Amino acid sequence: MRGCFVTGTDTGVGKTVVAAGLARLLVERGHRVGVMKPIETGCEAASGGELPHDGRLLAEAADIQGDRQWVVPCRYSEPLAPLVAARREGRAVDFEAIWRAWEHLKTHYEWALVEGAGGLSVPISPKYTMADLARELDLPVLIVARPVLGTLNHTYLTVHYARSKGLSVVGIVISGYDANTANVAERTNPEMLEELCELPVLGCVPRRATIETAEEAARAVSEGVNVERFIARCAGPLPT
């Protein structure tokens, strides 16, 4: 199965936009794409009903039909790290539900785009992080990074941590990039990230005031990301 685990250098960096945009662009190329956000926090409803915001955008982007509840098997009301949210609600993360959802995805789709919550070191349960989940899913990692000052450090640390956990890294996507910026850090960061991390920057998703639909996400990603290169990077084994 082709695919990747979409993570970020921080929360709110644009993971969902990138994952949804890639999902829609892959569907438009004729691929059967399964999407999943194993744990979503900050949900309006903790369980049942409609999908929460991120899961809904992913499902719409991938044109998931019928029952969509498996797209987000675990949900928590407060916008916190899963371990913290789970403890505050007195309800541990349901790993069995995650694995059932993953088996469904693997059975019915040829591509898997799985979006984590926050960054790779975010705790899911004691001594178990998003990086551990990505490793058990046996997916390479796509890192979504900010364009601004500080991203060299955050991204390099994320890449280093991923490699220390035995994960392969597909590449880096910079989200919220202003091609016309006068900011020196933002202009030079893409090239410096490739040099420091020894990974390709697969593209820079342009800054938008809002992105609320799958079509808007796909349009933004298509403007900034080399999708064919992304597909090729997901096609075979990558060095860790």
Automatic annotation (TrEMBL):
Keyword Ligase in record: yes
Binding-site residues, ATP: G12, V13, G14, K15, T16, V17, D54, E115, G116, A117, G118
Pfam family, one: AAA_26
Main location class: cytoplasm
Record has rRNA processing as a keyword: no
Metabolic or biological pathway, per its Swiss-Prot or TrEMBL entry: Cofactor biosynthesis; biotin biosynthesis; biotin from 7,8-diaminononanoate: step 1/2
Protein name: ATP-dependent dethiobiotin synthetase BioD
Record organism: Pyrinomonas methylaliphatogenes
Gene: bioD
